[in-house]
Structure formats: C-alpha cells, structure tokens
Amino acid sequence: MAEPILEVRDLVKYYPLTQGILFKRQVGAVKAVDGISFELMKGETLGIVGESGCGKSTLAKVLMNLERATSGEVRFKGQDITRLSGAGLKSVRRNIQMVFQDPYTSLNPRMTVGDIIGEPFEIHPEVAPKGDRRKAVQDLLDVVGLNPEYINRYPHQFSGGQRQRIGIARGLALKPEVIICDEPVSALDVSVQAQVINLLEQLQGEFGLSYMFIAHDLSIVRHISDRVGVMYLGKMVEIGTEEQIYSYPTHPYTQALLSAVPVPDPTGRERRERILLSGDLPSPANPPSGCRFRTRCWKAQERCSVEVPLLAVPELLEGPAAHRSACHFAEVRDVIGTA
Amino acid sequence: MSEPTNTLDGKAASAEGALAKGAKGGKDAKERVASLWTDAWYDLRRNPLFIIGGLLVLFMVALAVAPQLFTDKDPNSAGFCELASSLKRPSADHWFGFDVQGCDIYTRTVWGARNSIIVGILTTSLVVLVGGTLGLLAGWLTGFWDSLLSRVTEIFFAIPLLLGGMLIMSTWQKGNAWTVSAVMAVLGWPQIYRLMRSAVISNKHNDYVVAARALGAGTRRIVTRHILPNAVAPVIVVSTINLGVYIGAEAALSYLGIGIQSPAISWGLMISDAQSRFLNAPHVLLFPAAVLSITVLAFIMLGDAVRDALDPKLR
Predict the structure, then answer these.
(1) B212 touches chain A (CB under 8 A)
(2) Residues B273-306: tens digit of each pLDDT
(3) Does residue B234 lie within any of the structural domains?
(4) pTM here?
(5) CB pairs under 8 A between A and B
(6) Which residue range(s) make up the domain with B121?
C-alpha cells in the first residue's frame, strides 16, 4: 500500500451531558470516541465494525468535521483538519466526502435529482463551470448506473437502491479522494446491497478512491475491505488486514462478533462454536475502568480492571497473524472455521 | 446497470417520451415531473373539499376587492338607508331585506366582506412573519436564544386570543381593521412560532442537512434550500385554517363593540346590531351570520384539503 492519506491520532469526542433549562451546566460526558488512532492508506478500503452505539458513526462525523473533535488529530495528507474553519475547511471538504446510511432521509425530498447532485457544484463553483453543470450531473448519474434523463425527477420516485446511487453520485461530484461510507447498505435489500457494493468497488478502481467503510454486517465488510478495524465502546480493539481479522482474530470481542456470522456450510456450522456474550453494552457515559470489554469478557482478570490494554502487536503473534490488538491476553482463535 | 427493484420502468418509457417532446420545445420547465408541490396540487384539484372551499374563498375575496360588481348600491352614500324600510323582510329587489335603520342588508353584507378579508389576511401574514421568523431563529440557534424565546412565547401563549383582544381593544379604543389585525397578530404569533420551531428542529437533524454541511454549504444555503422548503408545509396548513379563525375572532370583537366601529361595516357589527330584535326580525341577524360562517368554513375546508395533500403519510 502507498502512503497514508488520512491519519487519525488519539481522536477523542465527548458529548457533554448538561442539566438546567435556561442556564446549562455540565454534569458529565458521553465518551463516544475515546482515543482512536489508525491510518487510511491511499486507494484502500478500511472497514470499521462494531455493534450499535460503539461510536462508529461519531467517528465518521468527526472525520467529516461535522462534529468538532474534543482532542486528537485527523491529518489529511499531513495537514490537521480538526481545527480548520472557513475556506480551509471548505477546501478539505472537497477531498473528503460521505455516503449516508439511510437513502430515504439523506436526499432532500423537495429537490430534484439534478439539484441534489448539482448542489456540490453550486457550493464549489470552481469544480464545474456554470454551463457544464447539467452535463456534469448527467455524467455522474451515468457513472453510478442511473439513467441521465432522471435529472428532473424527485427522490420519492426512486427505489432505495437508486436513491443510494444518487447519494453516491452526490459524494462523487467534487472528485474527492476519500469517501466515508456510514453503513451505506444497511438500509437496503440484500439483492440491492450487492449492487451498491459492486458499484462502490467499481468506482474505487475508476477514480482511485480511499474508502472508510462503516458497517455492522461482517460479511460485507470482509468482502469490500482491505483492512478492518473493530470498535468497542469508543475504542479500537483490534485492527489488521481482512485476512488477519477474520482468520486470526485475537481480541475476545472480535472473536465473539465473528462467531455470530452465519456460515452457509452446514458442516462448518457444526464444527464451530458460538461465543455468547453476557450482559449489555455499558454506558459510554460511565465506561468500565481498565479494559472496556472486561465486564463481558470470559478472559477478564484483575489486571484488566486496572490497566488499559494498548492497541499494539502482541508479542506472541508472529508471521501473517501479527497485527495490533488491544487485549492483555490476546491469542489467535479461529472462530469462523475457514482458516 | 439496471435494478430488479426498479420502480420506474413503467413510467420511464412515457416520461422519456415526454422528455423528447420537452427537448423539442427546449423548455426545462416542461420536463419537471411531479415535485411534492405539483403532486399536492394534483391531489388538491381532485379534492371536492378544496374545490368548494377554494371557490368560496375566491368569491369572498372578489367581494372584498370589488363589491361594486355584486351590488350597484353604495352603503356609504347619502339616502342609502331609509327608515321607512326598517326591518322589511327579504324581497325580490332586496334579497336579504332591511335592517332596523332601513339599510339594505345584502349591500351591507357584500361591503362588509372587505374588512373581514383584510383582517384575516393581514393577521395571518403578520403572524406568519413574526412567528415564522422567530420560530426559525429559535429552532436554528437552539440553546440560550431558543430557551429565552420559548419562555417569552409561553407568556403570550397563556393569553387567550379573544380575552386578550378584548382587553387591549377596550383600552386602546381605536377599532378598525388595522388595529384589530395588529392586536390579534400580537396574540396569535406563538402558535406559528411553535410550529415553525418544531418543524425546523425536526428537519435540521435530517441526513440531507448533514450532507449539505459535509459539502461545505453555508448557513444561508442550508436554511433557504433545505430547512425552509421542508418546514413551511405545516405552517401553510395551520395558517389557512387560522385565517378563518381570525375572521371569526374579528366578528366576535366587533360584536362586543370593541372591534371595528360604526360607520365601518363588519359582519360582527351587523350581528351585534341585530341581536336585540332577533325574534321579530331574524333575517337581519341570520344573513350576515350565515355569510360569516360560510367564510370561516371555507378557509377551514381549504386548510384541511391542503393538509391532506401535503401530508406525506397519506401518499
């Protein structure tokens, strides 16, 4: 892989909890993202998985600068973008775009498809001269596999998959280098999911895009990702190549997640064991001390409640299995039964 | 690449035919198919509630704009009222009969429409302007300004329209269409404020607003292109219904003698003058009252129809 295009360093996002009607005071904080570091390489797809409420979407919003980071850095080509504003921020926005989860709420129902996809050009007039915009919008519709003559239609006249294509076309309009996909297919039918995924892959090849692909469907993440990061309660617990995560998972949480993936092969299904986690996701406003996963972990010991495990390559991992994992007792356990 | 779930295949062929025609004409406007507003308009044209309400409203507005078209008499001219005709019953020449002063009720009813319509439209415009602007500000800014504005609004909201109107009008002692509108607008804006504020708040967290921000859109673009077009529908609906309510409230104030004052003509005033002789001469009261009811009803019907057409849940 080439050089990193996006570097995230110790990214933190806390949402203050306030009380009071007219004058508010802070009584605590929801630690949605709590010290995450990773990098996104040029042209790669980084999958981010984790259960609902683990901070995946918050991470996306902070990367997009839709929410201000509490602390930490997000470097785009070496430049920290978390503290940008005004023109600097606007120019960064040209390079990092987003595809949203719900194609039914991400398109303004009162705007035509042409207006929706053309809006990026109105905000950044330098990208496409006024006379060429209609043509540019039609080209984008063509690129995402929609009839360019749909330009004057409204979102409610399209199916979910078609709407998501419109959302992708809008994201592509400014020719960004990074696209953050926040669960782009979880609201779609399975048959349509595959089409949208294939479209995303095809566009990546065509335009050399880097994707950060957030999802909770592990099979789709495996299909599309070069590398995968696993999040739990605002922390990255394990990150590695698709092969490393799926065949050599070392963090108990990753193992539990993977053991829930349906296996189409009945013999494989019988061979493997299902890891059932007890308890619920703890509140991110008051996370457990030490390792955040210890309250639900079968390996948890005294050390886990005292010492926060760092995201590093455990010593006993060697060869192809060596990747970063935030567990004191990391060890490979094949839970899918494919390795 | 086509999708198995393509819902447009059937429509696509005909739409493309239309597109080809549009291209010949070279008009973009012709290609515009079915926005939510045009859909709503399509629905409305088929709704009998809208047609009846709309025709009645149009008729009332015509009365207000050009009463001369509907009667050749002028109620302000000398000799319009003749005491000799006092309380005469309706006849072929004088459809609604005469009131106690011997004035032709039909002519007065026709000329009275103007004040009612002025009060209705002016009050509604002021309410939408003030309530809508403040609601937009509060919903958009949130935090301190929202809390402050909302508390102020609650104070106004606690004053009933009629009671507050009576209090202000009886102290002010200047009853005409303009003052009545101003007073009702002062008391009426909180309703639209609340509506606008909640519509703005519910819209501003939508993904399309987030998407616009992610593209780098400024506040003005987000508010005018994304928030307002999606927030105005409920405001339009409630305003249309309220227009009728304000007309009724004006009549009530005038009836109580603190709204529009004689010699200006108002339906409420006519009803008030007629009530003492209701048993002897019911027509003096019934005709203006009926027209008032029909007008209020027409606006409420119109508002109901618009609400049905704009409600996406009913599609």
Answers:
(1) yes
(2) 888 888 988 999 999 999 999 999 999 899 888 8
(3) yes
(4) 0.80
(5) 117
(6) 55-68+97-314
